[in-house]
Amino acid sequence: MFKPTAAVATLPAQDFDRAKAFYADKLGLKPTDESEQEAVYAVGDSTFSVFPSFGAPSGDHTQLALNVDDLGAAVKALRDNGVVFEEYDLPGLKTVDGIAELDDERAAWFRDSEGNMIALGERMTS
After folding, report:
1. Is 69 part of a structural domain of the chain?
2. Dihedral angle at the C-alpha atoms of 102, 104, 108, 109, nearest 10 degrees?
3. Looking at the 3D structure of the chain, how many domains does it have?
4. For the domain that residue 45 is a member of, what is the CATH number?
5. Do the Cβ atoms of 19 and 113 come closer than 8 Å?
6. Which of 21, 42, 98, 99 lies 20 to 30 Å from 84 when distance is taken between CA atoms?
7. What is the spatial distance between Cα 110 and Cα 46, in angstroms, rounded to a whole number?
8. 26: closest CA among 112, 120, 87, 99?
9. pLDDT tens-digit profile of 34-47?
10. Quick check: is 3 in a domain?
């Protein structure tokens, strides 16, 4: 029987040192485990890793989503650290000052130093 116990995101990095510096300097995240093959970061009960890659750059889809309690405060804090948020004006997706209001969630997107799309999400309670 297939019964996964966890899901882990892995993000490619064309420049591994630059990627590790981005996560430390911009997001304030330090690896919980690190080798030449990957840097592992803990976020709550989850982890994600960054690994050196020589393949094609990442696409335009979200590759890592981080949940936050206060999206506005998180966006401001990251902007203060030099993170640039994406702006969208598409059918079904429009951002205002980097933040989209969705059905039951607010979200914002930015790219890491390697072009990986990272989403921040805040669940809305009724």
Report:
1. yes
2. -90
3. 1
4. 3.10.180.10
5. yes
6. 42
7. 20
8. 112
9. 999 999 999 999 99
10. no
